[in-house]
Design a protein that fits this description.
Order of helices and strands: HHHHHEEHEHEHHEEEHEHEHEEE
Distance between the termini: 53 Å
Shape: elongated
Protein name: Metallophosphoesterase
Strand content: 15-25%
CATH superfamily of the largest domain: Metallo-dependent phosphatases
CATH topology of the largest domain: Purple Acid Phosphatase, chain A, domain 2
CATH architecture of the largest domain: 4-Layer Sandwich
Keywords: Hydrolase, Membrane, Metal-binding, Transmembrane, Transmembrane helix
Radius of gyration: 23 Å
InterPro entries: Calcineurin-like_PHP, Metallo-depent_PP-like, Metallophosphoesterase_sf
GO molecular function, one term: UDP-2,3-diacylglucosamine hydrolase activity
Largest sheet: 6 strands, mixed
Oligomer: single chain
Organism: Acetobacter tropicalis
Length: 373
Amino acid sequence: MRLVVFGLPLLVVILNWLWPLPLPLVLKFIAAALVVVAMFYHYWSRLSSGSIFAPEFPRLVIILFNWALGAILFLTLFQIGLDLGAVIIALATWQPLHISVGARETIGGLAGMLAAIGVANALKVPPVRDVTVTIRGLLPAFDGYRLVQLSDMHISRLFPAKWASSVVERTNAAAADMIVVTGDFIDGSVAMRRADVAPLEHLHAPDGVLAIPGNHEYYFDYKDWLSCLSELGFQLLLNSHVVITKKTDQLVVAGVTDRSAPRFGEVGPDLTAALEGRPTSAPVVLLDHQPGDARAAAAQGIALQLSGHTHGGMILGLDRLVARGNNGFVSGRYALGGMTLYVSNGTGLWPGFALRIGRPSEITLFHLRAEKV
């Protein structure tokens, strides 16, 4: 599979697109070398930090790598489409069809432009997206409750302190009753990211700032990150819950660890433990980084599950493949019996493939409404 993922674009772009262009041989060799260098971006990332998930390059270099990867991806698809079209026309007319230089230049320009748009979209500080959710059994004191979800910030060299500060400012301006973060705070160790995550200390809401880990926290000194996030003021829900009380009405917010935890010798998600001792009359909002187990949560009577992890699929078309790896859940709202699942597109993005087309990032502001009887 890895050979197909990396080998096919190299063959298509270098041999099928670049080589037929009327360029000096030396320029073709230089361009081919640059394509190879771009395709090995994750290898260079591993050399820079010890992990493919944390490219420790200047931000501009990371942006250029992501643009190049995107351009190669789109160019591969366009060139295959061009080749297939030429074959179909040739078979229909029974005459050989030569693909013109102009056609090659057009798809090259289009691929570069789409990649640039995709990277620009990924780097934006996301807008606040308003979502209203009706919850069965929500008591009067919580009718109209406002809850902000951040997810998949992936704070890194690509999404540094300045970006994090802007996210904090925009989130606080939403004036929510509670802020939750559904994992994947970072890419990098505490030593690498301490200054970049520092702005998160300024997140504030009357009922607190709650969080769960995502899979990326386990890739980088999990226990150190738990300690760091606690120092920044996050209340971590590790297979546990809190009860929010207003007057005599209650709302439960529960959280579970990530399903990748056992691979790292840590405790995996345990919804039964997370709900143990909760007031059974209060509806439950569940924080679970990955949405794949949502049907099991619905079967346990959860009212609202907030997840992330998928980044919304990043690119229209690619989102269908991402959905297949997450039990069909990839972006937005899903109704599962009496439970609403919401899968955030993510606030940031993994710096190893930072492109968004048709799947914008988001800071999500939920307005909880009581079901009308």
